[in-house]
Amino acid sequence: MKITVNDEAQDVSATTLAGLIDELGYAGARIATALNGQFVPKTERGRAALAAGARVEIVAPMQGG
Amino acid sequence: MTVLFYGQALSSALMLGTAQYPSPEILRDAVLAARPGVLTVSLRRESAGERAGQAFWSLVHELGVPVLPNTAGCHTVKEAVTTAHMAREVFGTDWIKLEVIGEADTLQPDVFGLVEAARILSEEGFKVFPYTTEDLVVAERLLAAGCEVLMPWGAPIGSGKGLNNVFGLRAMRAHFPAVPLVVDAGIGVPSHAAQALELGYDAVLINTAVAKAGDPVRMAQAFGLAVQAGMLARMADPMDARDMAAPSTPVAGKAFLG
Q1: B56–A63 CB contact, under 8 Å
Q2: ipTM beyond 0.90?
Q3: Which residues on chain A are in Cβ contact (under 8 Å) with B47?
């Protein structure tokens, strides 16, 4: 299934956001996620279904002012 | 007199940004030299391969300074609110430095979007630190929206120009005597920070002035000392300025030598 993750095209087999996090190798990382512009809390990722064309954002702590 | 930011006292009136340092080691040494009360942090896209964010988080966590996540780079209410939600989960704090940028050249806040985002986030339990201007009407709206801290700019972000509108900042201090006020943005050198505290501001937020100095660690120490000096001066109640000279040495008893 073709989706975009952090603005990069990806072909993935995961069907949920939780599955995607594992598939892409983010397991255990301190991250936050959004699906199609909506924040998805960690506890909801297992219920967040991915469809073709989904836009996923995965962010982490970064330097800021 | 201890100022509380949403019920929490800070160990220093210096809030220090973590961006633009030459290296993580220099950032760490700058924090140790400045001993800030708060570190500001942000969120950016994470690569599963590089995991840069994880290394940064380890460094910040190790320093043990409370963090204030920002919504830097957000230009709409929706972006800012969503970023705040993500920041709360990642950093485990309901503090948020709310930035809704309205203009590309000056990076001045979109105060209309700022008030709307502040209301949404305050209703959701966030403790909002709004990056605003010195406009008193906007300030009133932010307080009505639930903000208990205000962070007016001194000058445009990263400009280093200091306190561009001392009159406006002074008026804000006088108008909101009980609201914690922080000068955020535009401070270039330690004397600007001391000046803000002497005006009665409760803290200053600095990033570029330290990170982009030739020697960030030494500059961090200088800001730490300036903030201490400014706070002491404020507590000591500065004298009033006057237009004419007034002799400091007593005239009475002076020998007649004419």
Answers
A1: yes
A2: yes
A3: 6
